[in-house]
Amino acid sequence: MDALAIGFLAATGLVAGDASEIAVERLGSRTKFDRPWWRCASCGSAAQGAGLVPVWRCIQLSKRCSACGSPAAHPWRPLVLAVVCACVLGAFAARLGDDVALAPFALLGIALVAISAVDFERFLIPNRIVYPTMALVAPLLVVSSAVDHRWGSLARAAIAAAAAFAGFLAVHVAVPRGMGYGDVRLAGLVGLCTGWLGLGHAFVAFLAAFVLGAVIGIVVMIVTGGGRKTRIAFGPFLAAGAVLSVLWGGPLAQALFHRGG
Ligand SMILES: [Zn+2]
User: Ligand 1 mean position to 44 CA, how many Å?
Assistant: First the structure.
């Protein structure tokens, strides 16, 4: 895939990530998805002028509200979402190339970034992102399978989604405090998408999520001194595992299963 297309996807990610701030802010603060989309968190007055320009608004948001003078609650969050989303979509484009499947994976990337942000801040994996993503990604994967007759991919996607959902559900039932039901649903989505690329990809996604979660969890426990009561959101690790799997799932699965063979 040429640099222009990768740049286009990265730019799409930049704008989509910036816009996802609306969902992250509303879901995090448990408020309605109402207008004005961009507003002061204190007085609710609508953003104006440069405050409405994607990405550039971060510089505006970092200033004080022109109506009530209160500082922005999360001045840099839209920029962080935009940059991470741009990197993920650009990398997906470089990895998947000129493929219809780029559409569902781009949607997955945007959703994973937003879900991670909400879960990181609030320990909550929002159904209002997971369900619409599932509803869009599943038919797009069917279309991608139909275009190139990759029905085997679709079957593997269904198997991985069901296996991931069942596996996480078992953990949730056994240790409800350790694994929320939101993680179970997100695991189903991650299983579906990575499974479409291959069962090895799905395995890599979940292995990476657990390894990253364990390593970073231990580091956080040591740094904060919180011991085993330390609460860590698992959503961002599932998201990171999924992104790693899309980018390098093939060679990683190869290295895991065919060592020396
Ligand atoms: Zn204000």
Answer: 6
The strand ranges marked E within 6-157 are none
Asked whether residue 1 carries a pLDDT value surpassing 70, the answer given is no
pTM tops 0.85: yes
- What is the whole-number distance in angstroms between the Cα of residue 71 and the centre of ligand 1? 8
Tell me the C-alpha to C-alpha distance, in Å, between residue 106 and each of 14, 95, 124, 159, 209. 12, 12, 22, 22, 20
Tokens 């704008």 label which residue? 15
Average pLDDT on 140-156 reads: 95
How many angstroms separate the alpha carbon of residue 86 from the centre of ligand 1? 29
The number of residues in the chain equals 261
**CA–centroid distance, residue 40 to ligand 1 (Å):** 5
Residue 76 alpha carbon to ligand 1 centre in Å = 17
Residue 117, SS3? helix
